[in-house]
C-alpha cells in the first residue's frame, strides 16, 4: 500500500511541475498576438513576430544597420492614416519583402526589395494607399502563399 502512495505522490508532483513549466513557457517564450502580424491565406494563418516603427525617427531607421532579421520576424511600420508610401533599402544588409497594408487590413502591394550598397538607392512605392507596412525576410510571402488582396490580422493595439 505504501508503494501506491509514493507513486501517487510522485505523479501528482510531476503533474503540478509540468503545469507550472507549461504556463511559464506560454507566458515568457511564446509570442503573443500583441506582437504577431497574422497573414490569412486560403488554407491557414501564418504569423510573424513584429517590432514596431511608430515615429518618424523609427520609420527612417527601420531595419538599417542590422546583419539579419531572424526567421519569422519583421518590422511593422504604423502610419497615422492611409497614404501612398515609399521605402528604400539604404544600409539594409539583406533582401526583404515589403508588404503594404490598407486601413481595412488588406494587402494592397507586395514587393521584394534588394539591399542597396551604392546611392542612389531604388525607391519602392506602394501601388495603392496603405496605413501599415510590414517588412519580413525576402520570399516570406511566396513561401507562405499569401499576396495582394489577402487579409491580415494586425497585432493588438496597432489598428487606428
TrEMBL record:
InterPro entries linked: DUF192 (IPR003795), Saro_0823-like_sf (IPR038695)
Signal sequence, renumbered to the chain: none
Keyword Transmembrane helix listed: yes
Protein name, UniProt field: DUF192 domain-containing protein
Transmembrane residue ranges: 6-26
Gene3D superfamilies linked to this entry: Protein of unknown function DUF192 (2.60.120.1140)
Keyword Transmembrane: yes
Species name: Candidatus Azambacteria bacterium RIFCSPLOWO2_02_FULL_44_14
Amino acid at each position: 500500500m505504501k508503494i501506491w502512495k509514493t507513486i501517487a505522490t510522485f505523479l501528482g508532483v510531476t503533474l503540478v511541475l509540468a503545469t507550472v513549466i507549461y504556463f511559464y513557457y506560454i507566458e515568457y517564450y511564446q509570442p503573443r498576438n500583441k506582437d504577431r502580424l497574422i497573414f490569412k491565406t486560403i488554407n491557414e494563418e501564418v504569423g510573424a513576430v513584429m517590432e514596431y516603427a511608430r515615429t518618424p525617427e523609427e520609420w527612417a531607421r527601420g531595419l538599417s544597420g542590422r546583419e539579419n532579421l531572424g526567421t519569422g520576424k519583421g518590422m511593422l511600420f504604423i502610419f497615422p492614416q492611409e497614404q501612398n508610401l515609399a521605402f528604400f533599402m539604404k544600409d539594409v544588409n539583406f533582401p526583404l519583402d515589403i508588404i503594404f497594408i490598407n486601413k481595412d487590413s488588406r494587402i494592397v502591394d507586395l514587393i521584394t526589395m534588394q539591399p542597396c550598397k551604392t546611392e542612389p538607392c531604388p525607391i519602392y512605392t506602394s501601388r495603392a494607399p496603405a496605413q501599415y507596412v510590414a517588412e519580413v525576410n525576402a520570399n516570406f510571402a511566396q513561401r507562405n502563399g499569401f499576396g495582394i488582396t489577402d487579409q491580415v490580422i494586425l497585432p493588438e493595439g496597432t489598428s487606428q
